Input
Amino acid sequence: MREASGSAFEGIFRLITALSGWWLALASRRQACGRRGRAWAEISLPNLRHNTEALRRALPGGCRLMAVVKANAYGHGDVAICRCLSRVGVDAFAVATVDEGVRLRKSGVRGEILVLGYTPVSRAGELSWYRLTQAVVDAEHARELDGSGKRLRVHIKVNTGMNRLGEDWGHVAEIASVFSLRRLRVTGIFTHLCVSDRLGGVETALTERQIGAFRSLLDGLRKEGIPIPLTHLQSSYGVLNYPGLPCDLARVGIALYGVLSTSEGAVRQSVALRPVLELKSRVVLVRSVRPGEGVGYGREFTVREDMRVAVVSIGYGDGLPRSLSLGKGRMLIRGRFAPVVGRICMDQLAVDVTGISDVRRGDMVTLIGTDGGERISAEEVAAASGTITNELLSRLGGRLERVFLDSSLTTRL
Ligand SMILES: *Cc1c(COP(=O)(O)O)cnc(C)c1O
Output
């Protein structure tokens, strides 16, 4: 367990962290303007701010936005994202793990930080010291945390049909008993909708049942004389497809980053979102390949006609799915589409630039984003690799630089 080492020391530490963050932001901005950089994610803080405001307008009165910033803010860089969100008044965050929460606190993030995932009682000291709010995954978990001897803030997670975490909604007495545990302060109660992204008859009925189950539990608790703490049940699709649900918080992740999980399917309430992330890399070499020659590992791709191939300095080691190999993926160079040829490697890949004149070493390659009049969306890349944007973005690796546009928004907390 970690202990305090004096508030003066902590103050100085925070100041140094803030100053170095400022320097780094400035340095990376310079780098973005220059022509260096192997592979990087450009993060538009103005777009993040736009999405925050658009989503807030979509919430009913009295419902606050809880920004879900787990998995390094879906690959966007959690500390900078939280600092920017704090500046526009967001005061509630959700992470998946204690370590993510501790990291944010050490970077000076204030407000409520809810740990959504299971935390063993052995880490209760950190929950308390860093003032993190823990999701209680069932009544037994609550009793274990209470037994730690630490005073903890918790939100009770309720299972209404997803069957992942949460005490079953029908166990009213069990849930009520959590409120009487001496050292736990129950500040919230929540559930998670599992098919709110789809609007078919079956899915809508299931979601309505989940909502009804949650309400019935709250009624049960009221009957026991328990004052109801903060309630929340919507994530991004919950907000878009079930707007107007009366609750205190909405846990929004993917929509905050300006994309939906897939581009398929309609949503009931359309919110004008702007993608926050662009993914870029560089051409490091251009070569001619003769017919009959292969490109890349396994020689699974053979050139039929003379081809100009550009080697790009990004690979699956950066989080780019290897399943985009062999023509499944494409990228933009000089405003034109270039398909992937051969197998994507750990650190590099090759694209066909035969039809694009004048491609040279150092040219910028856009994997997600716009170049000239063309655009490749995160939804397109996710679909081409057989997944959803949530996975694609959250797997973008630590090796990628994060370049924050409008870094002035990150410099002050
Ligand atoms: C990840 C997560 C969210 C955010 O989901 P999005 O679909 O990205 O908005 C909300 N609630 C819980 C419990 C989660 O695990």
Confidence is low (pLDDT under 50) at residues 1-5, 31-35.
